[in-house]
Amino acid sequence: MSLRLRTITREEHLAFLRGRPSASHMQVPSWGELKSEWRSESIGWMDSSGALVGVGLVLYRQLPKLKRYLAYLPEGPVIDWFDQDLESWLRPMLAHLKAQGAFSVKMGPPVVIRRWETATIKEAIAGGQAKRLRDIEPDWHEPRAFELAERLRRAGWLQGEDGGAGFGDVQPRYVFQVPLAGRSLDDIQRGFNQLWRRNIKKAEKSGVEVVQGGYEDLAVFHRLYVVTAERDHFTPRPLAYFQRMWTVLTAEDPNRMRLYLAYLDGEPLAATTMLTVGEHVWYSYGASANHKREVKPSNAIQWRMMRDAYALGAGVYDLRGISDTLEEDDPLFGLIQFKLGTGGQAAEYLGEWDFPLNKLLHKALDLYMSRR
């Protein structure tokens, strides 16, 4: 198959995505507008008839004092990853990005390799037979994904070591997802563990009210987010980032971003953001107060988001990143422990891959990133 690639308009990009069940929220044009420190471009692959058959959002980050760029396609591009002639897709992309001044290309194929059910993971934890997810026999795997990885290696793409935690990539390699398709809400809630169901009931009995917010409520969210950052020792993004996020994402689609707040007696105790593309919904950012945690606002807000995702016709509710550690004394274990309560699945993606177009500059960037 002969494919050619060109810059496409945001309208072409969005029209293509509307014809697909889902794509990453990082592969929509508005995500490029949000990342103001990067230059963004929508690219498209055309077949011999001129029909658009694949798209990608490219973010370009300029090197200091040089007109050379790192080209990044987060959780993309949106192409036929299992095409036996993968080079017919990647060759024109690399040529185009090189012509744009890219010295290195990073991409994250949106391909799931393996899935583990909650019951499988719990059994492994209880038996102490595995220290990491990758040590457990998966409940499902995609054999074509291993062939794809081999084809990428043969074509010169490089995959960095992730240090074992699953956080070596810019985007998480391991995520936790709750399947919604073909299930009733009762069935979804029955999948929760006893603690989750009890916490949801406790929030209801305590009078916790979860509401959908608007742009003006982002300041309330941000105050709780700053409290969370102090508690969990990370650097918070400024309020202006979330205001820009809301403005550009909802301009593209009113449901692209939603804000939820959990109140008790008029006081905000928790807040979250939710992102939607097609049939895929993501829990994006979460924040909570340090007090009144006993009324379980975080469980209440998650259940409301799942119900709303279901009402939107979502096939999956994505709780995003987890570590693959199963050791209970590991600080990252809490990530998977909380999410296991939903009865969903852990999923491993193919991870991020780099192609050095200029090996010297690519090596210099690698060295810089390793010292940060």
TrEMBL record:
Lipoprotein recorded as keyword: no
Organism of origin: Kitasatospora kifunensis
MF term (GO), any: aminoacyltransferase activity
Pfam families noted in UniProt: FemAB
InterPro entries given in the database record: Acyl_CoA_acyltransferase, FEMABX, PG_Glycine_Bridge_Synth
Keywords for the protein's UniProt record, in alphabetical order: Acyltransferase, Cell shape, Cell wall biogenesis/degradation, Peptidoglycan synthesis, Transferase
Family: Belongs to the FemABX family.
Biological processes annotated in GO: cell wall organization; peptidoglycan biosynthetic process; regulation of cell shape
Top-level taxon of origin: Bacteria
Descriptive protein name: Lipid II:glycine glycyltransferase (Peptidoglycan interpeptide bridge formation enzyme)
